[in-house]
Specification:
Helices cover about 30% and strands about 25% of the residues. The chain is α/β, with parallel strands linked by helices and about 425 residues long. It folds into two domains: about 200 residues, Alpha-beta prism (UDP-n-acetylglucosamine1-carboxyvinyl-transferase, Chain), CATH 3.65.10.10; about 200 residues, UDP-n-acetylglucosamine1-carboxyvinyl-transferase, Chain (Alpha-beta prism). α1 runs parallel beside α2.
Length: about 425
C-alpha cells in the first residue's frame, strides 16, 4: 500500500519490565459533551483539564464560529476553558474534520442558531453515517440542504428554534445519533421524547454518559430502558465547574505496556466511579492475565507471565477493539472479539484494517461481519498502516513493543485524541 504519510519506527522494548506512572489527558467523550451543554447554559461554565486534541479543537472552533465565547486559562488545578454562552447565529462555516462527535453533535445545536450554518469535513467524513441525525432534524421541522445525500457536506437553514416533540430514530449504527439529539433537547421548545427502533444500540455506556451529563447541567431526563425511550424536558441549563476525567479508552495502549513487556503501569486519577466505557478495561485486562488494583493516586496494572486469549462481546466498548486485538496477537491462546460490526463505520473499517495489517505481519486473523478471530502466530517486521485512524496507530505501537522493526504509518493521527502520543510513549520506554 502506497502512502504519502511518514513512517514512525515503533520503539522496541522486548521483555524488559516497565515501572511507570502515566497521566492520561482528559476524555474526548466528556469534553465534547460538556462543550455542547455549556453552549446552551444560561451562565458560563469552567471546564477543567479538557482534552486538547484535533477533535476538541474542531468542536471548539465550530462553537466559536456560531458565536460562543471560549477562553483558555491555567491555575493550580491545571488548564481550563471558560465557556460563555450566547444566542447562536450564522452565517457560519463548520469544519468537522473526521470527528464523529463533531459531525453528529454540532448539527442539532446549529439548528438552534439563526442563519445558515454550513458543515463540511475531511473526505472520509462524507462516507460516515450521518443520515439518521439529518432525518431526525428534518422530522423536527429543520430545513437542511444536502442534495438528497443525507450526508456531508450540508447547509442548515436554521431559524433559531427546534419545536421538539416525539421522535423515532434508528441509532444501531452509532449511539452518537441518539446522544446528539438528547444533548440539545433541553433547548427544544417542547423537549423531546426519543424512541430507538432498529438493531441493538451500540455503546450503551456512552448513552448513559450523555444522560448523566445532562443531569449534571440541570436537565430533567427520564429513561425507560425496556422501551428504549428517553424523555428530556424543556428547561434552562446552568453553567458548571467541571473537572474532565482522564480518557480511559486512551489508557488501553499504555496499560498494554505492562501486559506486553512485564512490570507495572499506574494510570493517574482513574475514577472509582464513572460512566466511561473504558472502565471495562479493568475486567477485560484481568481476564487476559494482568493484575488490576486501585492504589493511592490511580489504577495499577501489573502484567502476568503471559497474555491470555479472550472470548468477549465488545459491542458496548468497540473503541477498545484495536488495543485488545493487538494484545490478542501476542497471547498464548486464540481470541474471539464479537459484536463489533459497527466498527466498520468508524474512521475506517476497523475490522478489515486490523485483519489486513496484522496478517501482513505474519498474524492469523479471520474476519467475519461482526467479529474477529485471532490465533497467535509469530510476527515479523513491516509497515503497520493506519488509515487516518488513531486507534489503529496505537495498536501498531503496542505490537512494536515486542516485534522489532514495526513502522507505524502516520503516527500523527493519534493527535485526534492525544496531544502527543509519540512523546508520551517514548518517555515511558526510556
Amino acid at each position: 500500500m502506497n502512502s504519502s504519510h511518514p513512517l514512525w519506527p515503533a520503539p522496541f522494548r522486548g521483555k524488559r519490565p516497565v515501572d511507570a506512572i502515566v497521566t492520561i489527558p482528559g476524555s474526548k467523550s466528556v469534553t465534547n459533551r460538556a462543550l455542547i451543554l455549556a453552549a446552551q447554559a444560561t451562565t458560563p461554565s469552567i471546564i477543567r483539564r479538557p482534552l486538547v486534541s484535533r477533535d476538541s479543537e474542531l468542536m471548539s472552533a465550530g462553537l466559536v464560529a456560531m458565536g460562543i465565547g471560549i477562553e483558555s486559562g491555567s491555575d493550580a488545578q491545571g488548564d481550563y476553558w471558560v465557556i460563555t454562552p450566547v444566542p447562536l447565529k450564522g452565517p457560519a462555516k463548520v469544519d468537522v474534520g473526521n470527528a464523529g462527535t463533531v459531525m453528529r453533535f454540532l448539527p442539532p445545536l446549529a439548528a438552534l442558531a439563526t442563519g445558515d450554518i454550513a458543515f463540511d469535513g475531511d473526505p472520509r467524513s462524507y462516507e460516515r453515517p450521518l443520515g439518521p441525525v439529518i432525518k431526525a432534524l428534518e422530522d423536527l421541522g429543520i430545513t437542511i440542504e444536502h442534495e438528497g445525500r443525507y450526508s456531508l457536506p450540508m447547509v442548515m437553514k436554521s431559524q433559531g428554534n427546534i419545536p421538539g416533540g416525539n421522535l423515532t430514530i434508528d441509532a444501531s449504527a452509532s449511539s452518537q445519533f441518539l446522544s446528539a439529539l438528547l444533548l440539545v433537547a433541553p433547548s427544544m421548545t417542547n423537549g423531546i421524547t426519543v424512541k430507538h427502533s432498529g438493531g441493538t444500540l451500540p455503546s450503551m455506556p456512552h448513552i448513559e454518559m450523555t444522560v448523566q451529563m445532562l443531569r449534571d447541567f440541570g436537565a430533567t431526563v427520564t429513561v425507560d430502558a425496556a422501551a428504549q425511550t428517553w424523555r428530556v424536558e424543556p428547561g434552562a441549563l446552568h453553567g458548571v465547574d467541571l473537572v474532565i476525567e482522564p480518557d480511559l479508552s486512551n489508557a488501553a495502549p499504555f496499560i498494554s505496556l505492562a501486559m506486553v513487556c512485564g512490570g507495572s503501569i499506574t494510570i493517574s486519577d482513574w475514577p472509582r466511579s464513572t460512566t466511561q466505557p473504558g472502565d471495562q478495561l479493568r475486567d477485560i485486562f484481568t481476564s487476559m492475565g494482568s493484575t488490576v488494583e486501585f492504589v493511592d493516586g490511580g489504577l495499577k496494572v501489573t502484567g502476568g507471565e503471559r497474555i491470555h486469549g479472550i472470548d468477549i462481546d465488545l459491542h458496548d466498548v468497540g473503541e477498545l477493539t484495536p488495543s485488545i486485538a493487538a494484545l490478542a496477537t501476542l497471547a498464548d491462546s486464540p481470541s474471539h472479539l464479537r459484536g463489533i460490526g459497527h466498527l466498520r463505520l468508524h474512521e475506517t473499517d476497523r475490522l478489515a484494517a486490523l485483519t489486513r495489517e496484522i496478517n501482513e505481519l505474519g498474524g492469523n486473523v479471520t474476519e467475519e461481519e461482526t467479529a474477529l478471530h485471532i490465533t497467535p502466530a509469530p510476527l515479523h517486521s513491516g509497515v503497520f498502516h493506519t488509515y487516518e485512524d488513531h486507534r489503529l496507530a496505537t495498536a501498531g505501537a503496542v505490537i512494536g513493543l515486542v516485534v522489532d522493526g514495526i513502522e507505524v504509518e502516520n503516527i500523527a493521527t493519534t493527535r485526534k485524541t492525544l496531544t502527543d502520543f509519540p512523546g508520551l510513549w517514548k518517555s515511558l520506554l526510556a
